[in-house]
Records
---
Amino acid sequence: MLCPYCEQDDDKVIDSRASDAGRSIRRRRECQQCDRRYTTFERVEKTSRLMVVKRDGTRTPFDPEKVLKGLQSACGKRPIPEEQKVSLIREVEEELMQLFEREVHSKEIGIRVARQLKSIDPIVYIRYASEYFNFQDLDALSKEVSDLQGEAPIFSTQSDLFNK
Ligand SMILES: [Zn+2]
């Protein structure tokens, strides 16, 4: 930091604490040149705002609320506690933040929500999957979800049914 008194860039932080409910950091600094003290406030920023690439190629900021709403509508009246939905979305968000730096395809989000739902409620899982993805894509989705889980697909393809 440039010292506001002598404009030298040579300071020592002597104290730092969170302020504004953790949204900023207040630092007490001491200039090593003129020994004067001053205070700085630094805003805590979300480092990278993840952008979602939608099916039509447009981009929109990742919004966990939106993902939650999609999940809620798929749940309908199924007895899944709201808490569980929220923590599911949080887990998906954390995974996305770790795996993707700037952009994530909406499909990647859907797959991860679907994967979690599979173990919570198969009915909601299928509802969510069929709403989130084209029905024609269901085979592909089923395979992708299975690949993630290392399991056999739970949907059988039309051709499988006819071949039996
Ligand atoms: Zn100074």
---
Amino acid sequence: MGKTAIFYGSTEGNTENVAYKLKDLLGGVDVFNVDSASADDLQKYDNLIFGASTWEIGELQEDWETFIDVLDDVDFTGKTVAFFGTGDADGYPDTFVDALGIIYERIKDSGAKFIGAVDTEEYTFDDSRALFDGKFIGLPIDEDNESDLTDGRLAKWVNDIKGQL
Ligand SMILES: Cc1cc2nc3c(=O)[nH]c(=O)nc-3n(C[C@H](O)[C@H](O)[C@H](O)COP(=O)(O)O)c2cc1C
């Protein structure tokens, strides 16, 4: 595995908890809160795992609102990127985990390689900006309604991406 770090933004701690579960599952990865991370931090890693919650009906988590501009200062050539995000599919079925799509749209032409897309079948929602080619661009986690599924979803996803990091 190349040098890998998780960069998360989290308002009430859900995405943060998931980030640390992911760290335990992957092993040997660093974790940064985007409220205090820099372009230099991003540049040091071969693999970047971005975690974000969605707020205000389809908006980025507030620390990501600032941090997304930092992505413009990073050379993504040769880097591998994966996404995970928390959302509430019952409460916000039309904007479920939109934040993942917002971040992906910002860097989709950056030269990065993207891994970790997830089938929609196991989720009940109406629409999401995180859908590309019929799949979620990363792993949706719903701590509000389906927290019992989180550990299984994470384990399966880590199994999917681990060999590509
Ligand atoms: C006012 C408000 C707006 C929200 N908007 C969305 C949304 O548009 N889409 C979504 O999937 N989740 C939405 N959520 C749910 C949060 O993303 C979810 O609770 C998440 O786990 C919060 O993670 P955090 O504690 O890491 O910030 C919203 C929650 C609140 C309270």
